[in-house]
Amino acid sequence: MNPLIDNLGPLVQALGTTLLMAVVAGIGSIVLGVLITIARVSPIPILRTAAFLYVQFFINVPLLALLLLAVFALPDAGLLLPLTPTAIIVLTVYEAAYVAEAVRSGVNTVPVGQVEAARALGFTLAKTLRLVVVPQALRAVVQPIGNVMIALAMNTALAAAVGVVELTAEVNKVNLVAAQPILIFSSAGLVYMAIALTIGLAAGWVERKVAIAR
Question: What are the structural domain ranges in the chain?
Fold first, then answer.
C-alpha cells in the first residue's frame, strides 16, 4: 500500500494549514514591513530608531527560538492563543523585518534629489512616498520580496517543532508508521518546491507588469 494515498486526507489538510500560514503571514509581513520602512525613512528620530531596533532584533534571533518563546513562554504571561494563529503571528513579525530591508533597498534606489525636490514643492512625507518614491521603488523590490515569501513558505515547516500540524509534521507522522522516508520526505520536498516555484513565477509576472507600467 502507498502510505501517501492511504493518508491523503490528513496530508491535504496539513498542506492547507501550511498554505494558510504562508498566505496570511505573507500578507501581514508585507503590510507590516512597509510600515516599518516608512518609519525608517521618517524624519522623526524616535520612529527611525524603533524601526531600526525592530529589524536588527528579528534578523538576529532564530525563528525557532521565537516560536518556542511564543508557544511555551507567553502563556505564562497570560497570553494564550491556539497554535496555528500563534505561529502565523510569529512568522509575520519575523518576516516583516526582512520585507522591511527589501523595501528599504528599493527606496534607496530612488535618487535623493527627487525626494528633495518633492519636499521643496511642499509635498508631505506620505505624498512624497506615494507619488515619487513608491512608483520607482516598486520594480526594484518585487523579486526581493518574492524571495522573502519563498523563505516564509519554507519556514512554516518550523511550526512543526511547536506542535502545529502542518505538512512537515504530518509527513513525519506518516513516516513513523510507514517507515518509508525516501518516498514520503521526497514527496514533501517536491510539494515545497512547487510552492517556491509558484511564488517565484508570480513574482516574475508582477515584476514584468510593473516594468510595462513604467
Answer: 3-213
Residue with cell 506620505: 126
Place of cell 510600515: 35
CATH of domain 3-213: 1.10.3720.10
Neighbouring CB atoms inside 10 A of 11's CB total 22
The sign of the CA dihedral 52, 56, 59, 62 is negative
The span from the CA of 191 to the CA of 196, in Å, is 9
Higher pLDDT, 96 or 1: 96
pTM of the model: 0.86
Phi, psi of 44 (to 5 degrees): -90, 115
> Tens digits of per-residue pLDDT, 157-184?
999 998 888 999 889 888 888 788 888 8
DSSP-assigned states of every residue in 58-114:
HHSS-HHHHHHIIIIIGGGGT----HHHHHHHHHHHHHHHHHHHHHHHHHTTS-HHH
Render pLDDT for 79-130 as a digit per residue (tens, 0 to 9).
788 899 999 999 999 999 999 999 888 877 777 777 777 777 777 767 777 7
The reported pLDDT for the residue numbered 214 is: 46
3-state helix/strand/coil string of 134-165: HHHHHHHHHHHHHHHHHHHHHHHHHHHHHCCC
Q: How many CB atoms within 10 Å of residue 161?
A: 15
